Structure formats: C-alpha cells, structure tokens
Amino acid sequence: MNRRVLRRLASNIMVGLMVAAVVVAVIPLVLILTDLAVKGASSLSWDFFTKMPVPAGETGGGVANAIVGTLIIVGTASLIGVPVGVGAGIYCAEYPASRLTWLTRFVADVLNGTPSIVVGVFAWTWIVAHQKHFSALAGSVALAMLMIPMVMRTTEEMIKLVPNSLREAALALGYPRWRTSLSVVVRTTMPGIVTGTLLAVARIAGETAPLLFTALGSQYLSFRLNQPMAALPLTVFTYATGPYEEWHRYAWAAALVLIFVVFVLGIGARLAIGRSQISSG
Amino acid sequence: MTTAASPAPAHAGPSRPRISPSLQGAAYGDRAFKFVLTAAALLIPILLGFLVWELWQGSRLAIAKFGLDFVRTSVWDPVADQFGAFPLIFGTLLSSFLALLIAVPLSLGVAIYLTEFAPKFLRQPVAFVIGLLAAIPSVVYGLWGIFVLIPVLRKTAFPVLRDLLDFLPFFKGPIYGPSMLAASIILAIMVMPYVMSVSREVLLAVPNSQREAALALGATRWEAVITAVVPYARSGIIGAVILGLGRALGETMAVTMLIGNRHEIAASLFAPGYTMAAAIANEFSEAATAMHFSALAYVAFVLFVLTVVVNAGARLLIWQVARGSAVGSKAL
What we know:
CATH architecture of the largest domain in chain A: Orthogonal Bundle
Largest sheet of chain A: none
CATH topology of the largest domain in chain A: MetI-like fold
Number of domains of chain B: 2
Largest sheet of chain B: 2 strands, antiparallel
Structural class of chain A: mainly alpha
Oligomer: heterodimer
Structural class of chain B: mainly alpha
CATH superfamily of the largest domain in chain A: MetI-like
CATH superfamily of the largest domain in chain B: MetI-like
Order of helices and strands of chain A: HHHHHHHHHH
C-alpha cells in the first residue's frame, strides 16, 4: 500500500520535472523575441531601411545596402540551389532503385551535417582564392550548397507521398513518363516543394558564417556579383561586436528585420502547404 | 454485343506494327528528362567530392609541415608560422559536451512529456514553439548572448556557481563575461530544438502495445515510459543526441561572439576559450601568410571529418530504430 503511494508520487514528481523542462525550454524563446522586439523596434525608422551606413561615430544612416545585398545574395543562391535540389529530389523519388539515388541521398545527408563555416572555406578556396578578391557570388554558391540538400530531401519526401495510382492513371492515358512526372506528380506536390524551398531560403537568409570571407560585407550599395557585398547577417555581426553604442542599436534593429524575414518566410511555407501537414515541417 | 465487339481492336493491333511518331517523341522526351534529372542528382556527389578536394588542397601546406602533430600541439603563432590546433579541438569538444549536458535532459524531458503526458491540445503548439528556436539565425543568438545573456550570467548565475562549487577547478578564478560556460549555454539553447524534435519523432514511432503492456502489468505511467517506451526507442534517442552533437560542433557565429576567442586551455569554465569554427570565422579573412590560411583550412578539414563521423553515427542509429517505418529519417 505504502509502496503504491510512493510509486505514484515518483511518477508525479517526474511529470512535474518534465513540465518544468518545458517551461525552461520555452523561456529563452520568449526572452529573445521580446528583447528583439523591444530593443530592435526603438531603432527602426524609415531611414533605417532607405539610407546607407554612415561612418563610425556619426549618428543616423541605415542599412539599405545590407537589405539589398541580402536579397541579391539569397536570390542568386536560390537560382542555383533550387533547380539542382528539386531536380535531384525528383530523380531520387522517381528512380528509387538506382545506385545514384543511394549515393545522392547519402551525400545530401553528409552535406546537411557539414558546418556552414566549412562550406564557406570551400567557397573561399574555390572562388575567392582564384579570383583574388571577395565576391558576392562566392557567398551565393556557399549558401546554395547549404540549400541543395534541404530542398532535395523535402522534394523527395513530398513526391513519395503521391499515390502510385495517380502515376498509373496518367500513363494509362498515354502520357509519356516525363509528362507524367512533370504535369501530374510534380504538380500535385507543388505546394510541398514550395514549402521546402521557402524553409530552405529562410534557413540560409540568416546564415552568417559562409559569408564572412566570401561576400565579406561592404559599406556601399553594390549590385555587382563579383564584388564584395553587404548582407544583413554580416551587419548584425559587425555592429554587435563593434565598440559603438550606436552600432549596437543598429545591430538589434537589423536582427529584428532579419528574424522578421525568416519568420515571414516560415509562415509562408506553412501556408503554402496548408494546415493538414503542419507537423511535418 | 460486347463479346462480338471485343475481337475488333485485337485485330487492329497487329495491323499497325510500326511505333507511332508520338511514341517515339515520348521516348526522346523521357531520355532528355532522365538526363537532366541525372545531371542534377550527380552534381551533389560531385560538389562534395570537390569540397573535400579543395579543403585538402587548401590545407596541403599545413599538412606537409605539421602532419598529425597539428591536432596535438598547442602553439598558435601566426607570426612565427607555428600552428597547433589542440586548444581549438579541445574547446570545440568541451563546449559541445557542456551544451549537450544541459540540453539533453531538457529536450528529453520535453519530448517525453509531449509524446506521453501532455494534453492533446498542447502537443502540437508546444512542439511548434520550441521548433521556432531552430529558426532563429545563429548571429541573432550571438547578439542576444552578448547584450542580454552574458550580463545576466555575470550578475547572477556565475557568482552563485563560484560560491557553491568553488572546490571544483571548473568554477574558480575571475569571472569574465565571454567564456566557455556562456558559449556552452547558448549552444545548449540552440541544439535543444533539434534533439527535442528528433527524439519526439522516435518516441512517436514506439508502438502503443509497448505502453499498454507495461500499464497492464500495473506500472504507473512514468514507469511505463521508463521501462517500456524509452528502452524501445533507446538507439533512436542516442541518435538524436549525437545529431545534436553534430550541430553543436559546427556552430559558428553565436560561439564566436560569446566564447572570448583565446587560444588557451583553461581549467575554469569562466575563462575564455576557442573553438575550431570560431577560429576560422575570426582569422580567415585576416590571415596574412599562406601558412596561416593553410592552417585554418586544415582546421576546417578536421572539423569536416569530425562532423561527418558524428553525423554518420547518428544516422546509422536512427535508421536502425526507424527501419521500415521511415519515421526517423523524416525527422532529419
């Protein structure tokens, strides 16, 4: 009798500890988001989005060049990464018995676990070292490499969900395989592929490490891919580790903008796929 | 009627033996389609091979000069072109270990609570909210760590730890802001969502009969979890932890901003340290000599090998537990 009470007590204590774990796990998120909102919002202004940075020590200015730079770098990375990722994903799903499928899947897993800083070093030795100057393109290539395995795996998983009867129906109607794949299978999974792509874009938009010695950052507005270019994550890093009070305020504001972009992309991704599969994100 | 009609098409078939042009076109289309897809799929292994090759090429100079002693020696002197990465490797392993020490109990607690105990309406939302932590960019963690976490730790947790545990060498000495401990705490927050979501997937894959059997034998709900559910998912959970380790090893920005960046090994966790990723991030764009570049590329190479080994181990374990159901692989 006594033992039963003790056992039940132990059970309840453990459940209590687990509830505490949930609370402790949620606290950092709440703190980070409120700090960002409070400290970041106070430094946001119209100038912040439209003006160039001013020399250190002066007040005013903005991070327009970094916002434009992030759009260009991430856009270019997506142009490289999405077609390769989607293509490889379709290959792996449509030819599951192929040996290449096994290899590609395995390598994508390896790439997925590769630290982004290592990919940055690779982009440096491959592109920057040969060109002898920093370039936004090298940054985009590094980001694309981080993006490809993510896009590939979601594409593959999504296509695998398509029932075979749909394929058979299309083939029975006389569609060749490629049209079956493109206009029946891929089209059915389009929302899923869009979701995977948006999530991957959200991931790389905040990446800093691969850009440190590829895109490098810049004080000026630049549209040239073979030149150094500013990017929001780099701005956050430089301003946060810099010595000026004014810079710190800008770092918070830039971080708020960054996280806003990341979350909007994430929410867009979830909307694209609809409510039924929220859990699989 | 129907039996009379059916022979007609059967006779029509053999009367047109040639493959129609549209079918031939389809065959070409199929071939072109497969070619494009194969190219995309092939590109990924080629890229990885290229990455390994470039890292090897980049670090050739340092490998030739230092060999394997590189990972055992501790001198890091760019002026004299002497490099040894032991403090970096040590710092990487120690910060990741400390991060897991904090993150694993928390994430397992959350994962078990969410799969076994939480009311149904709480499960999805809480998992989603904690998953949001994984979406926050590393550099934002660094920013928050510098301006919020470190000042708070310096004022509250660090002095308390020092007073309570000063008999241990880990909690002695002056309290710096940026330190091994601060970096480990931010790392713990960052890897927690990964460990949590993978172990949750693994726990969800445990068949209900396991729970029911334990409960039927008179176990309390906690006893059912600890005796029947967790052991069943053990290798998957270990896989989740190792996967978290893989994340922690390669994490760069937040660690760079919080660890203090000093090429030394200190006993005290309040002292600054360094990690492989942080050293690359800090020094690569400022390296002056070819040997310095090469040494940093060598560090990147070692880091790459380390994460590949760790991730491969994690995946093997998760595949093992999820074989057939593919639940584990989906979480990755």
